[in-house]
From TrEMBL, chains A, B:
Annotated protein name in UniProt: Queuine tRNA-ribosyltransferase
Family of the protein in this entry: Belongs to the queuine tRNA-ribosyltransferase family.
EC id: 2.4.2.29
Class of this enzyme: transferase
Cofactor: Zn(2+)
Database matches in InterPro entries: TGT (IPR004803), TGT-like_sf (IPR036511), tRNA_ribo_trans-like (IPR002616)
Active site: 94 (proton acceptor), 286 (nucleophile)
Length: 376, 376
């Protein structure tokens, strides 16, 4: 395949961190890098032109949401996701599995607080070898998602990188049930890969390593999936309650993955997690953290996050961060953005979002530079 | 005054319509023109860079809102409104009176439907010769607004064009009460002008012609206000229930105003009203119609407004309007914008808003061309 290539540019002498370059039909992704989440085909509060302008190289869209609205057939009619949402740079889609199951079980945080299952447990109706039957959150209709239908949907969407259909077991699960889920996930991933390879469409597919918080099952998952011709590896599933647990699991998992293929960490991209995972060899991180934080008035700076709604910013006429070249910092002051938040103007959401994403672009560039210099 | 000048470029041979150019310290306003409303120092869902890029020459900010949040003292500290909101082009502010009174009485539409007074009647506590005492909608504190304090606030804001403090009497008002209100408004406008002229600060001031739906009182208002050295004239107050009533009142009023000064129609800028008022000699119109309509999914086109949320647009991959050069039409399809509305993405608000405002920019350019050719 010449349309997808992972080029390893530099391995740190200090850790497993590496600088690389993922080549896709829609351009290059320098790694390590951050992936913005644009669930419905847009990063919330931005348009795709603005996203392009700040140099964000990879965008994550959610197949589950696009299936229910507008429907992947409409996206296909539009000529695929790039054409429909007018993005010229690379896109990655997930399988839809994560959303189906996380709506059923809630997030790990929900689960730990006993939320989630009670609230939305009715969404998943049945899990069989074939796939998962769930109820649409939009119109209540029954939808069957299988490895084949997920890949069909992802073919309609036409992202540069796609993900095989997997099950997301809850954090609280007995080992037997976890093992059973893992085996089925491996069969589902294999079926997904086969469906994909019948019609590659210049897309690349990353496997999803599962096994929950069980080290042996994680090892088993790596062993099985690395035997298959995937183009890269994503680490998914529950990785424990704490960042230490996650660090332990990733430290164990990543050395078992081939060095010449890219590694993605699914759904995790808060700043401390990125800082701890880059030295382990994670190449890309997707997370809605920077964009969701922005909409709540949390602005990322080199000195740490600041809460723009605090009254101390009402008369601060400096930009969010001195020297930042993002459109928000280039034009507007903390005092003005504070005012927009206080006045509940939608405009504040887009200014905060564009700043936080530009911060991530700069942060990842800094990591790449530090790895090149063997500093991390 | 050299910092403000109204240049009359062409009088139509067919009507009282004229093409002009208002020169201000922040640049030119070609007339007739549409004025975007940016109540809190931003057009809702856009930022001021985007507004600049589509060529919208005049923006309306509301003194009442800026007084309560962030406070005009903070805007003054920032170096005035242009600096605070980062707008390089001209700005007009109102006196705050309209908002105080309309929050008390509701809009004419509210009044006709017996809404408004019941809901928010408690806001205005007392009207005296000195001014109006009202309760802040933000924190419940009592605020006294007088001609002098309104002008002080507008000096802090530093817009290119400012408005004297006036009373907005309700539509349903006895003639005696209307006459009493009108006389007081004239005294308030005179006090405002005096306060302004003590410290002109390169600002221009437009008088506000009142008199409600009483032709004689409108004539009286013109006679009194045109004796004073105002830089332009705005038509305010209630103009009846129908567009015909408004047309009759404006037909009567405008010939009584000096031809060498600009005329503004306050708060009215729907398309039929603009079409009927341009031939009467109105030069500028401010209205939140195009931006509010946008946020509700109503997109303006040469073929009439369309409702983007209708299912027929789900698979329409054309732009909103063929040939439109706005950023929304340049990049995105009806189907995508329909999808963003259906998925409740904030992004749809800014795309719809930028399109509708660009439509207004183009529409007013068309009117200017037609007047130049004596077609209207």
């Amino acid at each position: 395949m010449t349309y997808f290539k992972f080029e390893l540019i530099h391995r740190s002498k200090k850790s497993r961190a590496r600088v690389g370059r993922i080549h896709t039909p829609h351009g290059i992704i320098d790694t390590p890098n951050f992936v913005a989440v644009g669930t419905n085909g847009t990063v919330k509060a931005l348009n795709n032109t603005m996203l392009h302008d700040i140099g964000l190289q990879l965008m994550f869209c959610n197949t589950y949401h696009m299936m229910l609205q507008p429907g992947t057939d409409i996206v296909r009619q539009a000529g695929g996701l790039h054409s429909f949402i007018q993005r010229k740079l690379p896109i990655i889609t997930d399988s839809g599995g994560f959303q189906v199951f996380s709506l059923a079980y809630g997030s790990v945080a929900d689960e730990l607080k006993s939320r989630g299952t009670k609230k939305q447990g009715g969404c998943v109706l049945k899990i069989t070898e074939e796939g998962v039957l769930f109820r649409s959150y939009r119109d209540g209709s029954k939808v069957l998602l299988t490895p084949e239908s997920s890949i069909k949907a992802q073919k309609d969407l036409g992202a540069d990188i796609i993900i095989p259909f997997d099950e997301l077991p809850p954090y609280h699960i007995a080992r037997d049930a976890l093992k059973k889920s893992l085996d089925r996930t491996h069969r589902w991933e294999k079926r997904s890969l086969e469906a994909h390879l019948k019609n590659p469409q210049e897309q690349a597919m990353y496997a999803v390593v599962h096994g929950g918080i069980d080290p042996d099952l994680r090892k088993e998952s790596c062993a099985i999936l690395t035997e298959l011709p995937f183009d890269g590896f994503a680490v998914g599933g529950s990785m424990g309650k704490t960042k230490d647990e996650m660090h332990t699991l990733l430290s164990l998992t990543l050395p078992l993955l081939p060095e010449d293929k890219p590694n993605h960490l699914l759904g995790i991209g808060d700043l401390p997690s990125i800082e701890r995972s880059v030295p382990l060899g994670i190449d890309t991180f997707d997370s809605s953290y920077p964009t969701r934080a922005a909409r709540h008035g949390i602005l990322l700076t080199k000195q740490g996050p600041l809460n723009i709604t605090k009254s101390e910013y009402a008369t601060n006429f400096n930009s969010i961060e001195k020297g930042c070249l993002c459109p928000a910092c280039h034009h507007f002051s903390l005092a003005y953005i504070h005012h927009l938040f206080k006045a509940r103007e939608l405009t504040c959401m887009s200014l905060a979002t564009v700043h936080n994403l530009y911060f991530m672009v700069q942060l990842m560039e800094k990591y790449r530079k530090q790895i090149q210099e063997d500093l991390i």
